[in-house]
Each structure stands twice: as structure tokens, then as C-alpha cells.
Design goal:
- This protein has ten helices and no strands.
- It is mainly alpha-helical and 219 residues long.
- The protein folds into two domains: 49 residues, Homeodomain-like (Arc Repressor Mutant, subunit A, Orthogonal Bundle), CATH 1.10.10; 144 residues, Tetracycline Repressor, domain 2.
- The longest helix has 24 residues.
């Protein structure tokens, strides 16, 4: 009994773990968080109402901010639209880059990236409407987005040429190849994913057919 009582006293005497103060965010970090919240809210509003219906009041309401906060970061609704798609596109590329890390060659990388693209669309359903309507609502953003994508693709394709993995195309033709591969994603989405609420995943047969063309055409 004496030992038990001693254990209880010792247990009670142990001081609680110190509460660590929360790290205070810098002004730059707070600004980045607010901008990210506005981008996210704009994507959700555009998904539901399109660019035409994405008013500043709807966007700030969805973000949980006063309208005055919006103007601290963007001079106008169009200024936001001109940044939205490139911002979302970089986030998509970051997502895909993690999925293709450690790929054996350009073909392994392309299959992983192809699958990751549709995985990203499934997880971010507002992205595709932001992309499609940007051609008319935010043409500057639309052009910038595709340039970013094409430039990233070109880097990967050029490396594959140097490694001897791509033999049928020279440097001047690679940009055309990049745009063809990007176009395939868009049209396959329209055919096999858009509007198909029961099966939002890309069918495996589509992946197999796409990779047959890629391997047969590039190698």
C-alpha cells in the first residue's frame, strides 16, 4: 500500500507539458493565406456560377471576408481572373510532380502524369470550368497557363531526347508534341469523365490506349 501511495504521489507531482505558443505568422504569410482563400473562393463560385456570375460580393462571401479586403489584394475582378488560372495551374503541376517523382523514364513519367491529371480533376472539380471559360473571360490567364504547361512539358521531353528515350522527333517538333499530349487530356476528359457522375474515374482502357500511342509514337 505504501508503494502504491508513493506511485500516486509521484504521478500527481509530474508537471503538465508546457503549452507552446502558436507561431505568429508574418505579414507575408498572412497575405499569402488571404490570397489563397480568395483564389479558392473564386474557384468555387466560378464552378457554380461561371465567370459571368462570379461577382466580388459572391467571392468575398464565400471566402468569409469583407469586400474591402478583396481590394487590398486585387484592383478589380478582372485582375483576379487574370491570375486565377495560372495560380491553379501551378498547383496542379505541383500535384502531378509529386506523383511522377522517381519515374523510370519518359513513358513511366507520362503514364503517372496522365493518371495524376485526372486524379487532380476529380479532387478539384472547379478547376475544369475555370480552365474552359478562361479562354473568353480571362484570355491573358488562358495563354499564360498553357505556356507554363508547355514549358514544363518541353523540359521533360528534351531530357528524354538527350537520354535516347525519344528518337522520332527533333527539338523543333517537341512543342507540337507537347500540345498534342495536352490536348488529348482535355478531349478525353470531355468524352469519359465530364457529366459522368457515376464513374468520375478515367476508365483503365483509356489509359492503356493513350500509352500505346505515346510509346509507339515517341520511341
Amino acid at each position: 500500500m505504501r508503494k502504491t501511495a508513493e506511485k500516486v504521489r509521484n504521478k500527481k507531482s509530474v508537471p503538465p507539458a508546457p503549452v507552446r505558443p502558436r507561431k505568429r505568422l508574418s505579414r507575408e504569410e498572412r497575405s499569402a493565406d488571404v490570397r489563397e482563400a480568395i483564389f479558392d473562393a473564386a474557384t468555387r463560385v466560378i464552378r457554380q456560377h461561371g465567370y459571368a456570375g462570379a461577382s466580388i460580393s459572391r467571392i468575398t462571401e464565400a471566402a468569409g471576408f469583407a469586400q474591402g479586403t478583396f481590394y487590398l489584394y486585387f484592383g478589380s475582378r478582372q485582375e483576379l481572373f487574370d491570375e486565377l488560372l495560372p495560380h491553379a495551374g501551378v498547383a496542379m503541376l505541383d500535384f502531378i510532380r509529386e506523383r511522377v517523382r522517381g519515374s523510370r523514364d519518359i513513358y513511366d513519367m507520362e503514364e503517372r502524369g496522365f493518371r495524376a491529371f485526372f486524379e487532380y480533376l476529380d479532387a478539384n472539380p472547379g478547376f475544369i470550368r475555370v480552365l474552359n471559360e478562361a479562354e473568353t473571360a480571362a484570355p491573358l490567364a488562358h495563354r499564360k497557363h498553357f505556356k507554363i504547361l508547355a514549358d514544363r512539358y518541353l523540359v521533360a521531353l528534351e531530357r528524354a531526347v538527350k537520354r535516347g528515350e525519344i528518337r522520332n522527333f527533333d527539338r523543333d517538333e517537341l512543342e507540337t508534341v507537347a500540345y498534342m499530349m495536352m490536348a488529348a487530356r482535355s478531349y478525353l476528359y470531355l468524352r469519359y469523365v465530364k457529366g459522368n457522375e457515376r464513374h468520375r474515374k478515367l476508365p483503365e482502357k483509356v489509359v492503356r490506349a493513350y500509352m500505346k500511342i505515346i510509346r509507339g509514337g515517341l520511341s
